[in-house]
Amino acid sequence: MEYDVAFVGLGYVGLSSAVCFADRGINVLGVDIDAKKLGMIKKLNSPIHEKNINELLEKSIKKKKLSLSKELKDVTKAKIIFLTVGTPSRKDGSIDLKYINQASKDIGIAIKNVQEYFVIVVKSTVVPGTTLRIIENLEKYSGKKNSIDFGVVVNPEFLQEGNAINDSLKPDKVVLGINSEKDKKIMFNLFKKIYRKNLPIVYTTPSNAELIKYANNSLLATKISFMNYIARIAEQIPDGDVEEIKNAIGMDKRISESFLNAGLGFGGSCFPKDVKALIAFSKELNINSDILQSVLTINDTQFMSVFNVLNKELGALEGKKISILGLSFKPETDDIRDAISLKIIKKLLDKKAIVKVYDPIANNNVKDIYGKSISYSSNSESCIKGSECCIIVTEWKEFKSLKPKDFIRLMKRPLIIDGRRIFSKKKFNKLEYHAIGLG
Ligand code: UDX
């Protein structure tokens, strides 16, 4: 066959995986219906901002390890077909399967007259039971039989934006929801070329693999909201400091130290969407999901801690100059999907404040939403200059090098709200320093 694998959908997961597989010497075909996106990729200009991705893209296209197509029917040139299309949220929080349905129908039609055993790999995040529907679609449109003429496996993705290449090549684990020994062999032969020798592969059923992804993300989101809840308590007690609590409880191996950072809440394309989808799915099963509902409620209200400080310190915000450092939903990405910065800007504008913002790479994305209603700086110093309060919304590394004297020198009033705990409370106590989880 012309290709070893094909990726249907070159979004975050599809494109990162495609360049990583190609870098490992696998012959990859990337398929996407978006001509603009394909055009950028062909010009070696990644549509997603990710460390090292342009280098890998260039290498894999020049070495002819990665080819691109707009035609879904071309997937039949590859033995293993990864489904990496998006599964966005519907209004009620449940997942919208329109792209999955379309892709599985098109793959079904494409493989209909091809005498080859294909393995279709569901990498998109889907709720338990979806893969069964994908199989139904494939059988209906191809006239072929699952497990005999083709196989379907589930292989959820756990990569973090900003670290996508590293996570794709060196994941903590690979989960494979698989029903047949034949598919297991095919997938193992592929994965042994990509991952380290002792990588734990978790073999499970397709439905369990689907649920593992939701459980994984929902538990991480729960850790964050739990710490934000503890932060609220710490703020109310003299000498309270959520950082000290985090450090101590993180030493307990049963808890682990990661994802315990209190802040202004989680954003991004996954946590909010996946938690909502699991809630909607539980509802279908008549299972109470108060636990996850609380995770969302805490997250939705966490940014208000900024306004509690502003109300107390500045009173009415009309005409007050507020600067925001950090716009992306987290550092090392320009992604602003569900970013907390957007909620803060909206509320500040509702209160008629004058807003100036700076992000190392996400300014333009915010400009698309807020246009001229706020102003944009090209560095942190010009952003905080003349402002009456500076809010740290995203913990970009470069903000950490700002010193108390910089804020004193540049701001009209050195009032800081450290929404991500990037500064040392000892060094900043000479300023009006407020921070999440600090009493
Ligand atoms: C997440 C999952 O981590 C990943 O496994 C999955 O494949 C996709 O969703 P991502 O959305 O890229 O990845 O970002 P992540 O690093 O997990 O952070 C999500 C949000 O949580 C960010 O807004 C971040 O600021 C916030 N966060 C993270 C905290 O507030 N505290 C923490 O301790 C960690």
The kinds of small molecule bound in this structure are:
uridine-5'-diphosphate-xylopyranose
What would you report as the Rg, rounded to the nearest angstrom? 24 Å
- Major sheet attributes: 6 strands, parallel
Question: Taking strands numbered 1, 2, ... along the chain, how are they ordered across the largest sheet?
Answer: 3-2-1-4-5-6
Strand composition percent: 5-15%
Task: Using the alpha-carbon principal axes, give the shape.
Answer: elongated
How many helices does DSSP assign? 16
Structural class per helix/strand content?
Answer: alpha/beta
Uncertain stretches of 5 or more adjacent residues:
none
Topology, number of strands: 14
Alpha-carbon distance between the termini? 64 Å
Mean pLDDT: 97
Helix residue percentage: 40-55%
- State the order of secondary-structure elements, H for helix, E for strand: EHEHHEEHEHEHEHEHHHHHEHEHEHEHEE
Structure description:
- The structure is a single chain.
- The protein is of the alpha/beta class.
- 42% of the residues lie in helices and 14% in strands.
- It has 16 helices and 14 strands.
- It has helices at residues 12-23, 35-42, 53-62, 98-111, 130-142, 164-169, 181-194, 206-236, 242-250, 271-284, 290-302, 304-314, 340-350, 363-370, 380-384, 404-410, and strands at residues 3-8, 28-31, 66-69, 78-83, 118-122, 150-154, 174-177, 201-204, 321-325, 354-358, 375-376, 389-392, 415-418, 432-435.
- Helix 4 (98-111) runs parallel beside helix 5 (130-142), helix 8 packs across helix 11 and helix 10 runs antiparallel to helix 11.
